[in-house]
């Protein structure tokens, strides 16, 4: 895929994440350089930092990560509601980076010990204009499974990027993280609609393990989040569990699930559709 960045030059992208409602896109080049822009001027203006960089929001511009801009990106994720988007990146070393709206603490920049009391940004600012490295999520995942990241030696940059986190999905005001052990699901952000799948229904929550979405036995292959809904998928792309307002009768939920499945197929998290249909035919 190629996109114009300044009206004349073109940059080739190998991966794109396009938010359905927040109106922004993050794309990654073959060299791991992330770019972002607002694909919808109606829904996105970058006032809350969802693009993770400054400059013209309607133009694809590169994103800088780290003090020396020396981080390469493997995966990008976008989400949020109109005019309140948030974004996440996984770099090639497996670290999580987040930016954008944090009104409901959907960026997870606080210890799991914060619980429903959450955290407060310095100066009271409820957004981040630049990507921030989130170490809290990896710390929580490793506390839940001390062997995480140590089982197998990464064989490629892609596998190294998933040494701790297998998948990420961003809902309207919350975030869902799947551990690389395929069992633990971490959630944070708004929880008033039960979208976090916790034993209680907190208004907001710091990173915590989801009782409803995590699986003690069967492997989880991918996670999906949209508006006030969270879901987990098995290797065939079938829904394993759900939390929040996930009725297929609700506007946009079926489409969001389809988009999530296609993303998971493209990134190798679940079987492609052809294999899935073949398996179904063989089972009949």
Notes on the protein architecture:
Strands 1-2-3-4-5 form a five-stranded antiparallel sheet, with no helix packed on it. Strands 6-7-8-9 form a four-stranded antiparallel sheet. A four-stranded antiparallel sheet has the order 10-11-12-13, covered by helices on one side. Strand 10 and strand 11 (174-179) form a beta hairpin. It is built from four helices and 16 strands. The longest helix has 14 residues, at 253-266. With 284 residues, the chain is of the alpha+beta class.
Summarize the entry for a quick read.
By secondary structure, the chain is α+β, with helices and mostly antiparallel strands. The protein contains four helices and 16 strands.
Core attributes:
single chain, about 280 residues, 5-stranded antiparallel sheet, 4-stranded antiparallel sheet
Question: Largest sheet, described in full?
Answer: 5 strands, antiparallel
Total strand count, please? Answer: 16
Radius of gyration: 18 Å
Instruction: Give the low-pLDDT segments.
Output: 274-284
Structural class assignment: alpha+beta
Distance between the termini: 39 Å
Write down the secondary-structure element order: EEEEEEEEEHHEEEEEEEHH
Sum up the overall morphology in one term.
Answer: globular
Query: Share of helix among residues?
Result: 10-25%
Q: Mean pLDDT, rounded to whole units?
A: 89
Widest β-sheet, arrangement of strands? 1-2-3-4-5
């Amino acid at each position: 895929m190629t996109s114009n960045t300044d009206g004349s030059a073109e940059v080739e992208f190998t991966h794109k994440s396009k938010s359905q409602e927040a109106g922004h896109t993050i794309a990654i080049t073959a060299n791991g350089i992330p770019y972002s822009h607002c694909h919808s001027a109606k829904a996105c203006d970058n006032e809350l930092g969802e693009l993770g960089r400054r400059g013209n929001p309607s133009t694809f511009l590169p994103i800088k990560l780290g003090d020396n801009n020396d981080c390469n990106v493997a995966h990008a994720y976008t989400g949020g509601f109109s005019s309140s988007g948030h974004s996440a990146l996984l770099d090639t070393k497996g670290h999580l980076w987040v930016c954008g709206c944090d009104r409901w603490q959907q960026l997870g920049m606080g210890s799991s010990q914060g619980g429903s009391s959450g955290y407060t940004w310095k100066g009271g600012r409820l957004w981040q204009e630049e990507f921030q490295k989130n170490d809290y999520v990896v710390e929580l995942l490793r506390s839940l499974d001390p062997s995480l990241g140590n089982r197998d030696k990464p064989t490629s940059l892609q596998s190294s990027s998933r040494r701790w986190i297998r998948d990420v999905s961003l809902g309207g005001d919350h975030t869902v993280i799947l551990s690389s052990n395929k069992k633990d699901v971490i959630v944070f952000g708004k929880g008033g609609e039960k979208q976090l799948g916790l034993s209680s229904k907190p208004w907001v929550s710091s990173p915590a393990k989801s009782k409803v979405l995590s699986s003690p036995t069967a492997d989880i292959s991918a996670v999906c989040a949209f508006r006030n809904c969270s879901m987990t998928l098995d290797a065939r792309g079938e829904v394993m569990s759900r939390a929040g307002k996930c009725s297929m009768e609700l506007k946009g939920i079926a489409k969001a699930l389809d988009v999530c499945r296609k993303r998971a197929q493209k990134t190798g998290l679940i079987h492609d559709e052809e294999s899935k249909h073949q398996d179904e035919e063989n089972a009949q």
